Amino acid sequence: MLLSLSWLKRYTDLPDDASEISAALTSLGFEVEAVQVRGTGIEGVVVGEVRACAKHPEADKLSVCRVFDGVEEVPVVCGAPNVAAGQKVLFARVGAVLPGDFKIKKANLRGQESFGMICAEDELGLGESHDGILVLSASSVPGTTLQEIPGLCDTTFEISVTPNRPDALGHLGVARELAARFGKELRLPELPLAESGAAAESFVTMKVEDAASTPRYIGRVINGVKVGPSPEWLVHALKSIGKKSINNVVDCTNFALMEWGQPSHAFDLDTLAGKTVVVRKATAGESLVTLDGETRTLKAADFVIADAEKALVLAGVMGGTVSGVTEKTVNVFLEVAYFDPRAVRAQARRHTLSSDSSHRFERGVDPLVTARVSDYLAALIASTCGGSVATGRLEFTADLHPVTPRVVSLRPARAAKLLGVPLDAARVKSLLEGLEVRFVEEDGDTLRFAIPGFRNDLEREVDLIEELARRLDYNTIPAVLPALPLKPVDLPPAEEQARALRGTLRDLGLSEALSLRFMSKRALGNLNLAPEDSRNDFVPLKNPISEEWELLPTTPLPALLHALERNQNMQEHDVRLFEIGRAFYRAEKTGPRSTGVREEPVLGIALMGEWKESSWSARKQPVDFTRLKGVVENMLERVRVDLEWVAGVGSKAGFLHPIESATLVDPVSGDVVGVLGTLHPKVQAAFGLKLPVVVAEIYPLALLTAPHRPLKFQAYATHPASARDVNLVVGEAMRHGDLLAVVPKNVAYLNATRLNSVYRGKGVPEGHKALHYTFTYRHMERALTDEEVGTSHAQVTAALAAADGVVIK
Amino acid sequence: MDSNNVNQDLESLKIRLLADLDTCDQGGGDGLEELKVRYLGKKGEIYGLMRGMGALPADQRPAFGQMVNTLRDLAEERFAVLESRAAEQAIAAKLSASTVDPTLPGTRSELGHLHPLTVVRDDTIDFFRGMGFELAEAPEVDHEWYNFEALNIPPEHPARDMHDTFYVDEGVVMRTHTSNVQVHYLLGHEPGPVRMLAPGCVYRVDNDASHAPMFQQVECLVIDENISFSHLKGVMLLWAEHVFGKGTKLRVRPSYFPFTEPSAEVDVSCSLCGGAGCRLCKHTGWIEVGGCGSVDPAVLTQVGWDPERWTGFAFGFGIDRIALLKYGIPNIGLLTRNEAGFLRQF
Questions:
Q1: Can you state the angle between helices A341-350 and A356-363, rounded to 10 degrees?
Q2: What does the pLDDT read at residue B67?
Q3: Cα–Cα distance between A467 and A85 in angstroms, integer?
Q4: Which of B170, B229, B237 to mutate to probe the A interface, most A CBs <10 Å?
Q5: For chain B, which domains are there?
Q6: Rounded to an integer, what distance in angstroms lies between the CA atom of residue A32 and that of residue A26?
Q7: CB contact (8 A) between residue B118 and residue A512
Q8: Is the sign of the CA dihedral A496, A497, A498, A500 positive or negative?
Q9: Residues of A in contact with B201 (CB under 8 A)
Q10: Alpha helices of A453-573 — where are they, by DSSP H?
C-alpha cells in the first residue's frame, strides 16, 4: 500500500520528520518497505510561463522559447516535443539546483542562448515520466516555487499491510493509527450532501438476488454530471500514490477507495438496459469483457452486477467495458457495497484476477460504513463534476448483515497475564479508546467494548489483547525468561544416528551436499530402472515451478549426479559427496487426513574421479567399488552395525553395475538397508559424467532397526602374534569371498586373515590372478610355539590346496 | 720375573696408550675401535699385564694390581670421552646430510565438510536442547488441515496468500512452514507443559536471489500454565545473543500469523554495523530473523487443549537465513548447488 504524506495530513497532524512517521508505522505493524521523498534537493525551480515558442533555426527537434519566471522574461532552448506558448511549466532558473546536485548554467545551443531549463517530471525526481515537460494548470502563478505548488512535492511510504488489517488499505485508517500513536485528533472527511428532485428509485430499479455474496448493496443516482478532466487537487492526490487520472467521476470513486478503503463503482445510468441493476449469480457460459480487455467466460458460481439483459461487472473484482462512465455520461448510478469476503476471493481466484477492489473486499471492508461512504461519495461527485444527487438511497441489507458494532469482552487480568505487563481496567480502556474501540459496560472483572466496523479483525478477547500490546508498543514489554523445571533431553535415535553418519562420512573426507527436494521425470528415466522398481512410485507436484522440478524425489541420486556433473564442468574432478535427503513414495491413503505419500530419509553417497591419499604427493587412484565399500564399512563400523553383504545386484538396481555392486541386508529381518556399486555405464553417459563414479543409497530407518553391537570392553591379546604368508594363484572366477569360505572356521589360534595384494601380469598365467594372504595366529594369554602355529597353518594351507583351481606357490 | 721389568712395562704401556689416544683424537677418532680392542680387549695389553702379574712375588701383587686397575680406569675414561665425541660427530654428520626440504607443503589428508546449514541446524538444536526443548517432527508432505486449517487458516482465507503453496493432491500440500509440527505434536500429547523444537524443510513456490522453493525452518513451541508474551521475548533474546553475539538487541514489530496472537516479526540489531546502518541491513540497522507470537487460543481449541489453562508462545526462523547472515553468503541458491568450491569452505 502506497501512502502519501500530504494525503495523511488531511486527517491528522503529523511530525515534520518523515523518519519519525516511518518508525511509528513500523512499530504499529505496518512495515515500511520504502520511503520516497519528492522535491528534496531542489532549489531555484519556479512556475514559468511560456510566452513565446518558435522552432530553433538550426535544429528540428529544438524550440526557442521566451519564459517569464515571475521576475523577468528570458530566452530558453527546449527539446521537449510538447512545449507550446501559453503553457505554465516548471522552470529551472540559471543557478538552480536539481536532484543529484545538477546545477543549471547559462548555455548556448547551436547558436541560441538559453537561460535556464524547462523541466520534465523525472528531471525533478517527481516521477518517472520523460515523455515531455510537465505542464501545470493554467491558474498557476509564475514565480511560485516548486515547493509551494500543492501536490508536487510529497513523501510517500510503501507499507506492507497484513491480511487482517484491511482498514489500513485506506489513508484514513492509517491516519487513525498514527493519530492514536502521536496523541492527535483524527479529522474524518465530511461533505454536505444536498439531495434534490425525484427519489432515486424513480430513475433505476435495483434488485439483489444473491444476498449471500452481497449482504449490503447501496445505490445512489447523480443526474446531470459533466464528465471531464479532474480538478488539479484530485489529479495530484491520485498521482501522489501512482494512480492515473481517468475522468472526474472515476477519479472521485478512486479517491474514496484510497481514502476509506471502500471500493465503489459508477455506472452510466443511461446505458443500463431496462434501467435496472441486478446483483445475481452468473449463468454458466455467460461472458463479460472486463476493463483489462479480457473476455471472461463466467461460471455458475460467479456473481455479477447486471442490467436487465447482461452481466456488466464481475462483482467485487472488476468492471466491464460497457456501462462504465465515459465523456458522454450524464446520469450516474453509484454503487457502494459490502461483498462477502470469501465469495469475492473465490471469484477472483476462479478468474486469476486481482484488483484494488477485490484485494479490499476479500479482506473485509467496513460493513457499517457503506451508507456513509455512499453519501460522502455522492456529495464528492456532485461537488466535483456538477449534477444533482437524487433523493434517497436504494438500499439492500441481508438479514444477517450487522447493523451495530460487535461487542467483545476483555478481562484486564487475563491481558496482564498473557502479555506479562501490569494492566488495570482504566489503563485498558484508555489504550483502546485511541483505536475507537469504545468501552460499553462492566461485568465484574470483565469489560465489554464496542468494536468499530472497520476493525472486523477484532472478534475475540485475544484480539483486543493484541491491540493493547500494539498500543503499548511491543518493544516496551520486558524480556523475561520463564522459570521452567530442569529437564534433560536426549536426541531422538534417528537424529543421533544422522549425526553419527554425517560425522563419520565427514571424517572419511566426504563433503555433505544439500539438494532441493525435487526431481524430473527425465532424470528418473536416466537411472535405467526396472519398471517394477519402487523408485518409479513417484509423487508429482500439481503446480511445479519447472519441468526440472516436477516430481518429489524417490532417491537422492539424480540430484547428487547432477551435482557431480556441475562440478566436473567446473574442473572439479575429484569430488566426494554425501547427503541425507528425503524420498517420497506414493502410498495408500489410510484415512480422511492421510496424504497418500510415504516419506523417509535416504542417505546418498557419490564419489567421482580419483581418491587422493594426500594433498600433494602422487598417491591417488580412481574411485572404485572397493573404495566405496570401504567407506560404507567404516561408516557401519562407527555405528556398530553388522550387515550381510550380498555381492552383485544384477538388474535389481538398474543404475548400478550388475557385478561391481552389492546389497546390504539386515541379517535378522532380511530388510534391504542399502545398495552400492559402480555407476552403470548407461547412467554415467545419461548424466554426462566422464570420470569414474561410484554411488550408494542407504536407508537410515532400516539401519536404525538393524542389530547394533553394544559398546562393551573386550579383553585383547598382549602376547606377540605369529604371521604366516600364503601366495595363491587362482582363476579369475575364484573370488576372495570364495577362498575365505574354504578356510575352516575352527582353526585353532587363527586370529586374522588379511589380503595384501591381488596381482595380474608377468609370471601369472592369462585369466588368472595371484593373491597374497597373511594369516595371523595368536593366543590370549601366552606366546604360541612354532609347532602350534605350524599345526594350525597346515590346516589352512591344506584346505586351500584342496580347493578346486587353487595353486599354492 | 723382575718387578722392575714389570713396572717398566706398565709405565711404557701407559705412555704408548696416551700417545695413541692423542694421535687418534687428532685423527678425528679414526681407528678408535681397533685401539680400544688393542688396549682394553679381553686379549688386550692391559689384561696382558694382569696375566703377567703371576711372575711377581706375592707381596708385590696387590700393589701392582692396583696400578694396573688405575691404568685400566684411566684408559676406560679416556676411551669413553673419545667415543662420545665420535658419536656426536656421527650424528651431526647424519643430520647435516639430510635432503628434506622443510618448505615443502605438509602432506595433509583431504578433510570432509559438513554443510553450513547442518552446522547451524545442529547448533540450534543443541542450544535449545540445553534448555530442555525436545525435538519433534512431522511430514513434509502433509494434509492441508495440519498446515492450514488447524492453524486457524481456513480455506479462502487471505492469509493463504502469504504462502505460495505446492500442491501434491487435492488437500495435500508440501508444508509451507514447520508450524504443522505444532499440530501433530499437540494432538499426540496429553495437555501439559511443552518445550518443543522442530527443525525441517519447508516449501514455497518461489525462486529468486533471496527465496528458494525449499528452505529450512526451526519451530519452537513453549506451553505451560503461566507463559506470557514477555517470556517469548526473553527466550528470543537469549537465542539472538547466542547466534549474533552478546549485546545483540531485539526489535519486535506487530505482524499477523493466524496461529499466534499477539503476532510479531523479530529483528535483531545488525551484526555487521552494530545498528549504525550498512548494506547488509539495508541501512535500517535491523535484520529480520523470524516470526513469533503467543499461541492463538483457536489452535489450542482445535487440538482439544483448554486455552484458559494453557498459554504459550511459538517462534520460527529460517536456518538458511541465519546461515547466510552468519557466513556472509550472498545468494540462497549457493546453498543447494553443491559445488566443491562452496562446500569445502565449511
A1: 140
A2: 87
A3: 58
A4: B229
A5: 3-96 (no CATH), 116-343 (3.30.930.10)
A6: 6
A7: yes
A8: positive
A9: 517, 582
A10: 461-472, 493-507, 521-525, 557-569
Residues of chain A positioned with their CB less than 8 A from the CB of B337: 563, 566
Phi, psi of A324 (to 5 degrees): -75, 170
pLDDT value for B282: 80
**Three-state secondary-structure class, residue A697:** strand
Nearest Cα to Cα of residue A494 among A620, A582, A564:
A582
Q: Answer yes or no: is pLDDT of A133 > 90.
A: no
Q: Which of A162, A474, A513 sits opposite B252 (nearest CB)?
A: A474
H or E segment at A338?
strand A332-338
What grid cell was written down for A491? 536426541
Give Cβ neighbours of residue B244 (< 8 Å, ≥ 6 apart). B268, B269, B271, B325
pLDDT over threshold 80, residue A752? yes
Q: Are A659 and A625 in contact (CB under 8 A)?
A: no
Instruction: With CB atoms and an 8 Å threshold, state whether A417 touches B226.
Output: yes
Minimal Cβ distance to A163: which of B117, B161, B265: B161
The cell numbers describing B343, all together, are 562446500
Rounded Cα distance, B210 and A95, in Å: 45
Please tell me the distance from the alpha carbon of residue A67 to that of residue A81, in angstroms, as a whole number: 16
Angle at B113 between CA B109 and CA B115, to 5 degrees: 170
Grid cell for residue B290:
523470524
Neighbours of B193 (CB within 10 A): 15
CA A458 to chain centroid = 27
| Helix (H) or strand (E) segment spanning residue B186 | helix B180-187
Q: Which residues from chain A sit within 8 angstroms of residue B336, using beta carbons? A: 514-516
pTM over 0.95? The answer is no
Q: Which long-range contacts (CB under 8 A, 24 or more apart) does A802-809 make?
A: A802/A742, A803/A739, A803/A742, A805/A730, A805/A731, A805/A733, A805/A734, A806/A728, A806/A729, A806/A730, A806/A734, A806/A739, A806/A742, A807/A728, A807/A729, A807/A730, A808/A726, A808/A727, A808/A728, A809/A727, A809/A728, A809/A729, A809/A770
Model pLDDT for residues A165-196, shown as the tens digit of each residue: 999 999 999 999 999 999 999 999 999 999 99
**Cα gap A269→A248, rounded to integer Å:** 16
Taking Cα atoms as reference points, which of B160, B170, B300 lies closest to residue A592?
A: B170
- CA distance from start to end of chain B: 91
pLDDT digits (tens, 9 = 90+) for A488-503: 999 999 999 999 999 9
Question: ω into residue A405 within 30 of 0, thus cis?
Answer: no
CB contact under 8 A, A495 and B109: no
- Joined grid coordinates for residue A366: 467496513
Residue with cell 507443559: B193
CB A162 within 8 A of CB B256: yes
Q: Which of A8, A433, A420 is nearest to B252 (CA)?
A: A420
Q: What is the DSSP string of A274-336?
A: GGEEEEEEPPTT-EEEBTTS-EEE--TT-EEEE-SSSEEEETTTB-BSSSB--TT--SEEEEE
CA distance A396 to A620: 85
Residue of A nearest to B236 (CA): A479
What is the C-alpha to C-alpha distance for residues A221 and A224, in angstroms, rounded to an integer?
Answer: 10
CB contacts, 8 Å: B112 with chain A: 505-512, 576
pLDDT tens-place string over residues B46-62:
888 888 777 788 888 88
SS3 A603: strand
Nearest to residue A559, comparing CAs of A579, A534, A535, A544? A579
Please indicate whether, in this complex, the C-beta atoms of A560 and B338 are within 8 angstroms of each other: yes
> For the stretch A288-317, what's the b/e string if a residue is b when 16 or more beta carbons lie within 10 angstroms of its beta carbon?
bebeeeeebebeeebbbbbbeeebbbbbbb
Q: What is the DSSP string of A609-657?
A: SEEESSSSSS-EEE--HHHHHHHHHHHHHHHTB--EEEE--TTSSTTEE
The answer to whether the beta carbons of residues A679 and A553 sit under 8 Å apart is no
Contact: B311, A575; criterion CB under 8 Å: no
